[in-house]
Design brief:
globular, 2,3-Dihydroxybiphenyl 1,2-Dioxygenase, domain 1, alpha+beta, eight-stranded mixed β-sheet
Length: 134
């Protein structure tokens, strides 16, 4: 079961060009910028109420984000729902026959564990399940 929307991921060509809109114009506090090497992406996370906006910039032309932008242009990439026990949630979804991108949790940005559900199982929306590790 999901607890809340953790964040909305937005694919951008350049963090440097995109950050000022969210930080300066929309007045969202910038929490962190970090690179997730194994996903070939740099991310900037902004707080907005109880949720966040995650900007995603590819660090390699073969990155999933680079391929997404090439095909679709910049824009919403995924919605992430927070769960308290990611492994249990994945097990439940497998039992329900939900198509998964990730069969097991993996490391995500900002010290989280994540797994993606296949867009064909979620009405065309790439859906991330996110467990915050403290």
């Amino acid at each position: 079961m999901t607890d809340k929307i953790n964040h909305i991921g937005i694919a951008v060509k350049s963090l440097e060009q995109s950050i000022p809109l969210y930080r300066d114009v929309l007045k969202m506090p910038l929490e962190t910028i970090e690179e997730v090497v194994d996903q070939k992406v740099r991310v900037a996370m902004f707080q907005t109420g109880e949720s966040r906006i995650e900007l995603l910039e590819a660090t390699s032309p073969d990155s999933p984000i680079a391929k997404f932008i090439e095909k679709n242009g910049e824009g919403i990439h995924h919605i992430a729902y927070q769960v308290s026990d990611l492994q249990s949630e994945l097990n439940r979804l497998k039992e329900e026959g939900v198509r998964l991108v990730d069969q097991e949790p993996r490391a995500g940005a900002h010290g989280t564990r994540i797994a993606f559900l296949h867009p064909k199982a979620t009405g065309g929306v790439l859906t991330e399940l996110c467990e915050e590790c403290h």
